[in-house]
Amino acid sequence: MILIPAIDIINEKVVRLKQGNYSQKTIFSDSPLQIAQQWEAEGAPLLHVVDLEGAKEGQPKNKKIIAEIIKQVQIPVQVGGGIRDYQTFKFYLEVGASRIVLGSIIHDDPQLLEKLVEENPETLVVSLDVTNNGSLAIHGWQKSAPLSASLIAKALKRKGVQNFIFTDITRDGTLKGIRKEVITKFVKESGVHPLIAGGITSLEDIRILKSMDHQVKGAILGKALYTGKIKYSEALKIIQGE
């Protein structure tokens, strides 16, 4: 299991939203690159960088700064937000993103998704943003698809998708902790072993996820890191069994 710091970007600034609400954002830094280098120095094995404006508007808005992060750090970078066409996917691939996260196109353009899975099965990551009733949120969480996230994941796995992110959007940015039972239910029903995001607030949450390391591949940490609720070095010790 790995711990991945998240860097969410709006207008080239590091921000966090509460439950995907763009009107409830907190700015934590004016330098995404500096933050990326900080997490790298603290031992992060991978960064999760999201263009939040891109996610909302359907096309990338922070490509320049994201490309700079990829260039300047030595660890792999996973990129998401507004990647809804072949050209954008290829752009991030060419600038060196190690993983590229897709969300809304699994609903909007399944044919493109199939093409990208066929060409880049190890690079592609499908992000499943899950609502309280288990359905899928899309378009930067502005809309909800009337589909079960677990059934979608199961179908996508059959089609060759290897990597998934499961985000409990009812907990994302709330600092209320994870819901183990919701994660366990999703894993059981879908048969996939995702990265977990949304609500990870304490070292106890990290311990719970570590106890599930046969079910999940890792955790994406956001607001808890930036507010000091979790110190990355302490969380890393739990994962490493120290």
UniProtKB/TrEMBL annotation:
Q: What is its EC number?
A: 5.3.1.16
**What Pfam families does the entry give?**
His_biosynth (PF00977)
**Compartment(s) where it occurs, according to its Swiss-Prot or TrEMBL record:** Cytoplasm
Coarse class of the protein's main subcellular location: cytoplasm
| Assigned keywords, A-Z | Amino-acid biosynthesis, Cytoplasm, Histidine biosynthesis, Isomerase
- Tell me which residues this entry annotates as catalytic: D8, D129
Catalysed reactions, as listed in the record: 1-(5-phospho-beta-D-ribosyl)-5-[(5-phospho-beta-D-ribosylamino)methylideneamino]imidazole-4-carboxamide = 5-[(5-phospho-1-deoxy-D-ribulos-1-ylimino)methylamino]-1-(5-phospho-beta-D-ribosyl)imidazole-4-carboxamide
Keyword Cytoplasm in the entry? The reply is yes
SUPFAM superfamilies assigned to the protein according to its UniProt record, in alphabetical order: Ribulose-phoshate binding barrel (SSF51366)
Biological or metabolic pathway of the protein: Amino-acid biosynthesis; L-histidine biosynthesis; L-histidine from 5-phospho-alpha-D-ribose 1-diphosphate: step 4/9
Q: What class of enzyme is it?
A: isomerase
At the top level, the lineage of the source is: Bacteria
User: Which terms in the Gene Ontology molecular function aspect does this entry carry?
Assistant: 1-(5-phosphoribosyl)-5-[(5-phosphoribosylamino)methylideneamino]imidazole-4-carboxamide isomerase activity
Task: Give the family per the record.
Answer: Belongs to the HisA/HisF family.
Instruction: List the protein's name.
Output: 1-(5-phosphoribosyl)-5-[(5-phosphoribosylamino)methylideneamino] imidazole-4-carboxamide isomerase
Species of origin reads Thermatribacter velox
Upper lineage ranks?
Bacteria, Pseudomonadati, Atribacterota, Atribacteria, Atribacterales
